[in-house]
Amino acid sequence: MKCRNFVTRFFENIRSIFLNGLLTILPITITVALFRFSFKLIKSWLQPVYNFEPTYLKSIPHSEILLVIAFIFLIGFILKYFILEHIIHAIERILARVPLLSKVYAGVKQLINTITGKDPATNVQNIVFVEFPRIGIYSLGFVTGEIAKEIVPNIQEKIYSIFIPTSPNPTTGFYIACREKDFFVVNMTKQEAIAIIISGGIISPERRKSE
Q1: In order of start, what are the domains of the chain with their CATH numbers?
Q2: What digits encode the pLDDT tens for the residues 45-84?
Q3: β partners of residue 129
Q4: Which of 111, 127, 180, 195 has the fewest CB atoms nearer than 10 Å to its CB?
Q5: Are 32 and 38 in contact (CB under 8 A)?
Q6: pLDDT value at position 49?
Q7: By the 8 A CB rule, do 115 and 142 touch?
């Protein structure tokens, strides 16, 4: 009986060790196989490019792939810096002439520039937690500035403008104005805050994990 139990445990251990090794190398093997298959397929598609290459380029390994990649980058560079920029400016000029759309577009553009920091004049000052939409529930927000005293003369304390983005689209959200004591600043960069908002809290800053 003891001998049978020993043999059973022995083969179970052998099976467990084999499965652990198999499950470890299987994803790597499949990934390498798929990469090799895709690489050979791409080279077969680019065979006409290789046939028309100059002789000195054919001496470079996989020169047809490198040539196509360089060509794609060249096209992208031309589109971005010589054509696309002019197209965007033309569209902006058209939108600026439309009564309703001009205000909406200008507001959205300014909001995006504020969040991303492209416009230093309207840059985000602090990342904060504020009780919104009700007491006891905290939302992540961006302090975009201090409201002038002339607007709220009856309040002696400083009032701040806060933009609270929605998830997963941080370009839309809510605007609130509150006193400094109604929010607290968090030690977080704009990029980390936006990543948390877009992912719905799934992505956590790596430096926070290490800490």
Answers
A1: 43-97 (no CATH), 121-205 (2.30.30)
A2: 888 888 888 877 778 888 888 888 998 888 888 877 777 7
A3: 140, 184
A4: 180
A5: no
A6: 84
A7: yes
The token pair that represents 175 in the structure block:
């605007």
Token pair 């719905």 is found at 200
The answer, yes or no, to whether residue 121 has pLDDT greater than 80, is: no
Q: How many CB atoms neighbour CB 208 within 10 A?
A: 10
- Contacts (Cβ under 8 Å, ≥6 apart) of 165: 115, 140, 141, 142, 171, 172, 173, 194, 197
User: How far is residue 140's CA from residue 132's CA, in Å, rounded to a whole number?
Assistant: 9
Q: Among candidates 112, 123, 95, 101, which has minimal Cα distance to 172?
A: 112
Chain-centre distance of CA 189, in angstroms? Answer: 14
Query: What is the amino acid identity at position 126?
Result: N
- Amino acid letter at 163? F
What the block records as the tokens of 56 is 């000195």
User: Can you list the alpha helix ranges (DSSP code H) found in the chain?
Assistant: 2-45, 47-51, 55-58, 63-78, 85-97, 99-116, 190-199, 206-210
d(CA 15, CA 23): 12
Q: How far is CA 49 from CA 21, 42, 44, 62, 73, in A?
A: 42, 11, 10, 11, 17
Q: Mind listing the pLDDT tens digit for each residue in 174-188?
A: 999 999 889 999 988
Q: How far apart are the C-alpha atoms of 153 and 108, rounded to whole Å?
A: 29
Q: How far apart are CA 195 and CA 115, in angstroms?
A: 12
Helix (H) or strand (E) holding 178: strand 173-179
